[in-house]
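Lab manual, section 2.4: Encoding a predicted structure.

Procedure: take the sequence of the chain (375 residues), apply the prediction step described in section 2.3, and record the output as structure tokens. A sample record is shown.
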Amino acid sequence: MKSFVVVIFSLFLLGCSSSDEPSNTPPSQNETLFYKGMDLSFQSELESYTIDYKDENSNPINLLDYVSENGTNLIRLKLWHTPQDGQNGLADVKTYASRVKAKGMDFLLDFHYSDYWADPSNQNPPEAWQNMTQNEIRVAIYEYTKDVVLQFKNQNTLPDIIQIGNETDSGFLWNYGKVWNEFSDNWSNYAALVNEAISAIKDVDTEDRIKIMLHHSSVENAIFFFNELSEFNVDFDIIGLSYYPQFQTKNLNVVQSKLNELVTTFNKDLLIVEVAYPFTLDWNDNSTNFIGSNNQILDEFEASPSGQKAYLEWLTNTIKELPNNRGIGFCYWAPDWVAFSGNEQTSTSGSAWENQCMFDFDFKALPIFDVYRDN
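Recorded output:
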């Protein structure tokens, strides 16, 4: 998704602060950790504004404190190579990762390998990597990945999961690693780039603590992607998926069958790494939202606080029921990206996501947090 002043096919921005005492107790070795995660990539920016997030009883909260104390055990942060405004750059992500780890939560690092949003329609290499040869881009991704992971290791915030590319249905680092349209026979180059990134991670993480994830945007079409990749011996651990009903199938039986097929075919863990659902079809600013009508949502779950909660309960149970305990959790995308009057951009763009947040239009925590507390 994208940034605050931009409202196009992916969106975004904004921030909050906190103390550093761990609050989550890690599971014992005999327990299977089920991830109840959030993508809080906007928080470091949102904290530069005064947003009065509240708990269910309307008491003021610090957002990171609150989520860590109410069941969240994984925070996902995206990383851009050289962002123009510094947001989601390495220094920014390192700072927030320190706070995440201090709260006892696991950390998922989402490499976009771009200076801006990467998704199935946009996979632009960093400006610094333009006009390289195929061999040069392989060296670049290795050296960059190794340097980033080493910096996290040196500050004792080594990621627990690293995602190599964001929604890479069509590959990444176009056209070097593009696997779409006229580049449909380019899988060997895509796999080689991914393998360079994996080698860099493992050269730093000599104890093999980090889990490697590859991310596809579609529950329905991921089988094709991972089938194509299977002949190239890519050593990864987790299938990462996005599931947004407005863009994908609304048939929940199909969702269940596809998830089952993925874990049984490829024998990998599975994490729904991007998910969200509206608590209303209304809006709280002048920005057009991604969801605004009933034909964009599921018949089984209305756009209401209780419907939002019931949807995530269904998805959680579906993931937990996958064969061989291969379903390892979910990550809610941008639960904090509210619209608020203190933002100077609100009158023209604002948030296109506020009706899918986990806080209502008064910034009060919604019942969906029960899913985090109860699972």
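Check your result against the sample. The chain is about 30% helix and 15% strand.
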